[in-house]
Amino acid sequence: MSGGLVGLPLDRVDGPVKVTGAARYPSDVSLPGQAHAALVRSTVGAGRISRIDTSAALAAPGVLAVITHENAPELADAPPTALGPPPRFPLADDRIVHFGQHIAVVVAGTPQRAAEATRLVEVEYERVEPVLGLDNPSAAVERNAWGVEVDHGDAEGALATAEVVHDETFTTAAETNNPLGLFATVAQWRDGGLVVHDSTQWPMMARRTLAGVFGLAERDVRVLVPYLGGGFGAGLRTWAHTILAALAARVVDRPVKLVLTRPQMFTSVGHRAESRQRLRIGATADGRLLAIDHDSVAALGAEEANFSAIVMGTAHAYDCANVATHDRQVRLNIPNPGFLRAPGHAEANFAVESALDELAHRLRVDPVELRLRNHADAHPRSGLPWSSNALRECYRVGAERFGWYDRDPEPRSTRDGDRLVGYGMAGVTFGWYAAACEATLSITTAGTAVLRSAATDVGTGTYTVSAQLTAELLGLGVDQVRVEIGDSDLPPAPQSGGSGLAAALSGAVQAAADNLVRAFLDLVADDGESPLRGRGPDEVGAADGGLHLLADPGTGEKYADVLARHGLDVLTAHGEVEFTEAARTSGLAAAGAFAAHFVEVHVDEDLGVLRVARVVSVVDGGRILNAKTARSQVVGGVVMGIGMALFEDTVFDADTGRVANATFGDYLVPVNADVPDIDVTFVGGPDRFSPTGVKGIGEVGLVGVAAAVANAVHHATGRRIRDLPITIDKML
Amino acid sequence: MSGFEYVRADDLDSAVALVSGDPGAAYLAGGTTQLDLVLKDRVVHPSRLVDIGRLPLRGTTLDGDRLRVGALTAMEELAADPVLAARLPFVREALLAGASTQLRNMATIGGNLLQRTRCRYFRDPDVPACNKRAPGSGCAAVTGAARMHAILGASANCVALHASDLCVPLTALDAQVHVQGVDGRRVVPLTRFYVLPGDRPDVENVLAHGEVVTHVDLPLLPAGTASGYLKVRDRASYEFALTSAAAALLVVDGTVERARVALGGVGTVPWRAVEAEAVLVGAPASVETFRAAAEAAIHDPFTVPGTEFKVELAKRTVVRVLSTVSGVRS
Q1: A152 phi, psi to nearest 5 deg
Q2: A608 vs B313: CB contact, 8 Å cut-off?
Q3: Is residue A35 a contact partner of residue A254, using CB atoms and an 8 Å limit?
Q4: What is the pLDDT of residue B2?
Q5: Smallest CA–CA separation between A136 and chain B, in Å?
Q6: Per-residue pLDDT tens for A504-519?
Q7: Which residues of chain B are at the A interface, by a Cβ-Cβ cutoff of 8 Å?
Q8: Catalytic residues of A
Q9: Residue B139's beta-bridge partner residues?
Q10: Judging by DSSP bridges, how do beta strands A193-198 and A221-224 pair with one another?
């Protein structure tokens, strides 16, 4: 094996096409003869449309069609996905379930004309009082909708007898996915089939949904997304606008392009649901956890589903015998929430890691020490050994790099000039996830490889890390590997979500590479001219564009020579990986990433101004495929964590459910000036359950940051803020 | 299609004539507010936009003890002016606290004075109740998400904030606004340029339709005067103020001889705090004096749930800026 490529901090292989504008994102796609769609949105929060008059819009210049519930062709229900039932189709009937609901699609020759004509659609409503607010007594409540509640041991009993009981309520704000790339769809019907360029993180799911809705065979639908301008989970469902664009294309019999506006992003592609969590912790006087009871309420759309159970990870984080979790979702007239990076995990971690800090303070135990005392040496529920777990190392290395033990634990003890200084930390145990994945690898007579899979690169580095892995496995240079992804016609791949794609795709690539080496050896098995004839896969290694004997590295031949001699243009092998069976038989608890975040904040107490001055993040991400893209993943997560901690808050008007801050001027995300030095270190080694040793790191960087910030605020000021985001008004 | 006609003006007189003669016409300068309102938010519907962006109303001239600033001078350009930096440092600070470099390169000084409120109830046509946009329709903002709204000069009719940073020190300075209309030119002090919303929030300033700001005169601070601008916001950059304050102080032998104070982030118009100035002048430069001035500055606030915190925050902002400017911290 040539080796040595995996893990290197290589620049992104897709960097040049991105910075030169050659990379085609969905909103860049332009097809000959395409028309443009724009959406009309409901201006009431609940009720029904009593009258909709599209005549003026239809008469406007350039308008080709206006589609409403009155004339929309009937569509089949979209099939459920692994993440639950599909979003509600808004033109199915005259009912309004949230402010901003799509109620009509205007199609015109130019985007400007389509947008202008949306203003000419006249709508009258029979308005009913929308159901808003987590505490609304008339809201329907779904209990344990996803069957994830845990009831181990006797939490109530243990709480009743524990020496120390901590009982607090935490709230987290609704947050909207704000990828810079506005979600876009370009739909084209061709020969009875449908081709859709779409901002999706999951082409296979989008294909299945569109096929189901339009009554097509899956092979007649193709979903393309070679590049995606971020998603953060918004692209894990096929939302109504994608279906509406495809529908519009069918109605006008032309390709149709639809690009959501920024305000529409706030109502069309999900968001992190607002949550309120009551957390009760029982412990011994020396800080050993006896009981955890974690109860959460989160917002949900009026008629939809959202597979985002807040408390899902609580039972797996620490060694605690008695754990009960309760998951409730409250049906409100708001745009349906969805997935936003570390859905559920991030919210629950804020409560748990804040509460542990409170416990540490109360018991006068160092917060790191408290976590070490409750460290789960084995998986806390199954008792199985972790497939990997370097969480202790995360704490140790993080504390060292940060200078944690210089901290005077007394709140308000540290100043920098006029500013109060606080240190806070939090731990993270993230869940394992990876789904079955397939890929093919081909080698051509040019001696170069092509990797094909229906995976996506949401901007995180999938192109780069899979090129690196392929190159290493096949003994090629990274520039000799072409990666083709983002196309549902390619071998099936799971979503880029749940921090699961890197492990899944890497597994498939490794299997395909193994199979490809076998295919070459099969080809030369009886080839008298091949120095590799009769050799098995265990006897050969890959380097310098070919295979060689491990026992005699000077003996071997190049792929291109084998192909040429056998008159082949290309040799292709398929690979797939599947995790369910392995999970059952491995005897291991499959571990996701672990992390510890250490944060320093500076507080201008008089003015309530809070700034994050320093972050040290240490992550056990298993085997790291590319030190640079991995670091970027964690840094990006930390930045979003700062956003969650300090700024992000999607505000719904109390009387209508309108999003009151649906612009980048009003919805605050961190800017460069809010982001300090972020020191990222990876610890641990290859995971024993993942075939390639890879664990996902897409979300772990975000989780824990909010609690670490809140804990640092407490250390700085003595004030405990349990309500995110921590804004100036809460600090006064 | 509703649309609008775009006209590029060749000279100021014809631009003024064009807009004055057409009730549906409006000026276009840097475009950073106007184009948002017309094209993105779709809450302003001019039938004609007269682009004055290339008229020769750009740049600064020093004229005795005042700095004359052309209305089309870009914010970033003014911030780089050496006279401004030396003699009006708090104006420079306010300029650089606003927007982003990219926006400041486009946004003009005249446009900054005339910027419309950022109130999302004004800027969203899906909200029917907005007295500023549709007189008499009510105000959805008073019961809405409120933290960015005004507490001074506000009422149940309108809580829309004037969000300018620049106008805060300019108001403290008594900047003079030069205006041209079809009937000639006039000069309006900035302190009398804006109109409190009262029961007509749609009327924001004293300009007649078609009148245009040509330049603004900034009186230079007297020698020995110290000045500063403090902006308080959640985000470290690129956010409008929750509260802000501009102050210029001349302190002689521990006594405040001259004082100018104005507030941002709290007023429906840039807010001159004359009551604070009255407390300060003649008083010892002390934190007690500053606190008394701050109490005087924020009187009769109109708050709604979500803006109450601004009352105390604004006072602390005043105290802090006075402390910083005077060097008296305790």
Answers
A1: -110, 140
A2: yes
A3: yes
A4: 64
A5: 18
A6: 999 999 999 999 999 9
A7: 1-3, 42, 118, 120-121, 124, 126-128, 140, 143-145, 147-148, 232-240, 242, 309, 312-313, 316-317, 319-320
A8: 699
A9: B130
A10: parallel
Cα-Cα end-to-end distance for chain A? 61
Could A732 and B313 be called an inter-chain contact, meaning their C-beta atoms sit closer than 8 Å? yes
Helix (H) or strand (E) holding A347: helix A345-363
Architecture of domain B1-54: 2-Layer Sandwich (3.30)
Q: Which residues of A187-220 are buried (b: 16+ CB within 10 A; e: fewer)?
A: bbbeeeebbbbbbbbbbbbbbbbbbbbbebeeeb
User: Helix axis angle, A501-523 relative to A462-474, nearest 10°?
Assistant: 30
A609 — contact with chain B (CB < 8 Å)? yes
Size of interface A-B (CB pairs under 8 A): 83
Task: Dump strand ranges (E) for A155-301.
Answer: 164-172, 175-176, 184-190, 193-198, 221-224, 256-259, 271-272, 275-283, 289-301
Backbone angles phi, psi at A316, to 5 degrees: -110, 0
The Cα–Cα gap between A417 and A415 comes to 6
pLDDT at A318: 97
Extents of the domains making up chain B: 1-54, 226-326
Q: Which of the 8 DSSP states describes residue B267?
A: B
**Strand A570-577 to A556-558 pairing:** unpaired
Q: What is the DSSP string of A691-725?
A: TTSB---TTTTTTTHHHHHHHHHHHHHS----BSS
Given a cut of 90, is residue A3 above it in pLDDT?
Answer: no
**What is the bridge-based pairing of β-strands A102-108 and A63-68?**
antiparallel
- In what helix (H) or strand (E) does residue A59 lie, and over which residues does it extend? helix A55-59
| B226-326 and B1-54 share a CATH fold | no
> And the tokens for A411?
């709140």
Secondary structure element (H or E) that encloses residue A683, with its range? strand A677-683
Beta bridge partners of A195: A188, A222
Contacts of A163 (CB under 8 A, 6+ apart): A283, A284, A285
In angstroms, the CA B90 to CA B247 distance is 8
ipTM reported for the complex, 2 dp: 0.96
Evaluate whether A46 touches A129 at the Cβ level (below 8 Å). Answer: yes
The answer to whether residue A242 scores a pLDDT higher than 60 is: yes
Phi and psi (nearest 5°) for A596? -135, 135
Average pLDDT, chain A: 97
The hierarchical CATH code for the domain B226-326 is 3.30.390.50
Residue entry with tokens 């205006």: B179
Lowest mean pLDDT across A207-216, A364-373, A574-583, B86-95? A574-583
Please, which residues have CB within 8 angstroms of residue A245's CB and are 6 or more apart in sequence? A37, A105, A185, A186, A187, A196, A256, A257, A258
How far apart CA A155 and CA A146 sit, in angstroms, is: 21
Spatial distance between the Cα atoms of A370 and A364, rounded to a whole number of angstroms: 10
Which pLDDT score is estimated for A584?
Answer: 87
Residues B120 and B147 sit within 8 Å (Cβ to Cβ) = no
Percent of chain A past pLDDT 90, that is, above it, reads: 97
Residues in chain B: 330
Phi, psi of A65 (to 5 degrees): -165, 150
| Cis-peptide, bond into residue A670, ω within 30° of zero | no
Q: What phi-psi label fits residue A372: left (phi over 0), alpha (psi between -120 and 50 degrees) or beta?
A: alpha
State the pLDDT confidence band at B32, using cuts at 50, 70 and 90.
very high
Taking CB atoms and an 8 Å limit, are A728 and B234 in contact across chains? yes
pLDDT value of position A316: 94
Query: Please, which residues bridge with residue A717 across strands?
Result: none
Are residues B16 and B182 in contact, defined by beta-carbon separation less than 8 angstroms?
A: yes
Residues in A touching B235 (Cβ below 8 Å): 646-647, 668, 670-671, 673-674
